[in-house]
User: What shape does this take?
Amino acid sequence: MRILYNPYTLSSDEIRKYLKDLKIEFTEEVSKRLRLEVSSNIQKYLRITSFILALFAITYHNIGYLIKSTLPLWEYRDLLLLSITTVVIILNIDIVLKGLKSLIRFSPSMESLITLSSISSYIFSIAIVFGLLRNSETFFEASAGVLGFVGLGKYIEARLRGRVVEEVERLGGVIRGRVRVVRSNSVEEVDVEEVTPGDIVEFKSGEKILVDGVVIDGWGYVDESTFTGEVIPRFKSSEGRDPVFAGTLLTSGYIKVRVTRVSKDTVLSHIIEVVKEATLIKPKTQLLADKIVGYMTWVVIILSIVTFTYWLIQGKLENAILFMASVLAVTCPCPLGIAIPMVYAIAAYKLASLGMVIRRGDVFEKVLKVGVAVLDKTGTLTIGKPAVDKVVVLNGSEEGLMNTVCSAESRSEHPVASAILKYCRDRGYVLNDPNEYTHIPGLGIVARVGNDEVVIGSERLIKEMGVNIPEYVEDSVVEYRRQGYTVVFIGLNNVLAGLILLKDSIRRDSVELIEFLRGRKVRTVIASGDNAVTVEAVAKEVKVDEVYAELTPDDKVELVEKFQKNRLNVMFIGDGVNDAGAIGKSFLGIAVGGTDITKLAGDVVIMSEKLKDVKNLIIFSERVRRKSLENLLWAFIYNLTLVPIAMGTLYNIGIILRPEMAATAMILSDISVILNSLTLLKIKFN
Assistant: This one.
């Protein structure tokens, strides 16, 4: 539960009192970390122990009836199983208490029926052990089995949620630390929490930027891949009053920043909050299951009371208790409760083995309802690393030109320089140290290699250095940019000698995925923070329906909300933290590799970074839906068929369903559901 309130009109103490009046359990945020770190380990051993004991009880009981004389301690089986079941109940007492509280509040949940079934079975069996009922068999194993298996499932769910919280808190630690604040011509180092808007903070090369603000002095290259997904650092200077954000890295240079936002007000903190919200959403499938089980609980209670009353009126107390217990046992929610979760669990395991992690239970039904697919560009549709695609030589040979260029670039650490140097090394070009080297921030470099003066960089730098660009070259450059190339100019001794064309490669399976989605009548959209020309070029190549370029993280969220306001279910596919907000807000979020926080925001994480896995997910989900319906059908048939028998309707013709038989039937029903679900493992992907 997440509560938003106005502190000027309502106090947190009033909220706490209101929650207590509703008998809702809650834990303060400040104690969450302690609860996760200390209690989780204890709970882990309790849940696993109860599961092992329950599994032993079921195995011992069922095998024992086949080979009674050979099992050790079989003559003391009732006392042995009583002891084991008592321990299992104690180890899962939180589930029992939660189920009872839900019943007391008249809002029964899955825990309510689990509690009712397991405790009634337990009490019935105790009555037999102590001679209150005769000629009956105990079924402690049914009580232990229900709580043991459910307890393990609860633990796994809690651990997954705990890891999400821990990862989110870990990312929040990225913007915690100490910074240098410039005050009255002196520099003071303080915790970032002590900084206030308006303060001036300095950052040096290699330091993490811990505040949001505006550059008021100096210049530098800032790695903003945390937000933009773009691998090339952006030039920031005081001249342009450029903004910087907490969580980014100053790769080179020196800047002074006037603080605009700190701590929980930063852009990164808001993204983290969006991700936290996403983790609190309960799948619709689970809500529906809870609702069905809630109604089922009251139906079972009424049927049990009716059964008990009827046979009591008939003057048969033992039958009344026996049949009432049978009804409760046979209507145990296991078959119905695991019908869908079991399919989803096995399906999730199958996909995990293929590099896809499913983080929400409703993924398989949601992916089939998608109407719009919004995809990030860099790192999603493209590989995310610039590489030299072509060298256009205007004067001389490529080898001679690139020997000089790479020698000049050998001192640069810029990603573009790295791509150029890789190109030269792959082709065996010679690299020598430049005699002179000057870096022009945001524009390029000027160097002297041997007797040659070299200028490498943007069109603006080339022109400022007095190098003429012929008109036919300018026309070619326009066309290259339309094709999605980043163009680097080379000036040699005041003459334009060539162009280097860099490009971020399209993933091989991008076009295949877009074609598949369009074949399913899903509208395809690119949403990118890159410039419009580059994005349009990629869109043309992969053939999407719509293009949105130069978007901020908030813009992407607004785009998703715009589609969804028009009742279109959005599937957002991205890889950077800048995509995390949109992934969290979308109907279905898919993270392709990317950062830890993006993975946490995604309903699906494609670890292999293969876009064809999105296609496989959709096809596989159709099979999952079919298996879910088959399991539900079996679970309902099982209950509808056996409940009347458990009530004693066939007693007069000598057919009764004893509690132990009901428990066995329940287990067989579980097994049939599991076996049907396991067939998903045989499915092959392309």
In short: The CA atoms of residues 245 and 267 lie 7 Å apart.
